[in-house]
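Look at a sample.

——
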Amino acid sequence: MKLTCDRAAFSSAFSIVASAVPSRTPRDVLRNVFLSVGSGGVELVGTDQETAIRFAVSGVETSSEGEVLLPTQRVSSILRELQAEQFEIEVDEQSVTISAQSSRFRLSSEDPREFPPVAEFSDESYFRVAAPVFRQMVRRTSFATDTESTRYALGGLLLEIEDGQLTLAATDSRRLAVASAACDQHGDPVIPERTIVIPTRAMALLEKSIDPAVEFVDIALRENDVMMRAGTCVVYSRLVEGRFPRYRDVIPASGAVSVALPVGMFLSAVRQAQIITDEESRGVDFQFAEEQLSLSSEASTVGDSRIDLPIEYSHDALVITFDPRYVAEFLKVLPPEAIVDLQLTDSDTAAVFRVDESYTYVVMPLTQNR
């Protein structure tokens, strides 16, 4: 089997698929990317058997058909260093050779028949969301998950569909991010009765693979797994076991005070205040006063800081303490020109950040005698 590949297109696809390959696994065969060539074209597959991705590759010329396992780390390094616009892949029974101009690499290759099968997107009934919108929803929620937690299903994103609206929610118990968007359905998709929590890794893999030219993301829900298709890319994932918190119960209906804050200026102030913090004194005091927001931080081993930001504020003075990382991570997924509506009740009640009706972010304050 011999293939002539466009380096840029192949490298981009290989990099995405390699994200699904586990760095540690007792099954050595999973350390490879599976390449198949058939009548439908060239496809790359990667999996850790919990999450998998199939990616159709463009820019490949071949008259062959077959399969081969590509050692992920070695091939990634080779593709990163190649300078030629095209390169060739040649496969024999026990090895794969990659060559371009004056470079040639011959790698040992395992038996592709040992690679576990990965499901294809064959469902005729599914939900459909605009791809740019879904990608934005994932970016606006996935950072709030807790991938190291064993409580509930905090290591994934809750997916809900009701009355033509798809909602993603993520929490680590100290903050909550919720994003919604309209969705359509094709055929007669059935929503499982169980809570649908998709691993953060699978969602991040899909978000990374959505090409700007792709119009829609198709989502087929099953009792124990989910299939998501974006153009020529398909992501499969098992659902997370466990109970997701009743997130709607922790969102305050409305705050006593509402403050409009421009994202660009606010993020800059938060980043500056974050400089003078450490693990013991990680909180920043957000002091709201007449026409001004002051961010104060102090760490015994570092020093102290105060950043003033002019704002429209004409209420009673209020001080609330946040972990600046939680505020900065939220602001980073928004465009600098956006306006955030910050709703506050008092120093001890969760603050609510809203961006129109489709995006809500809730942060619990720190105690001020930290």
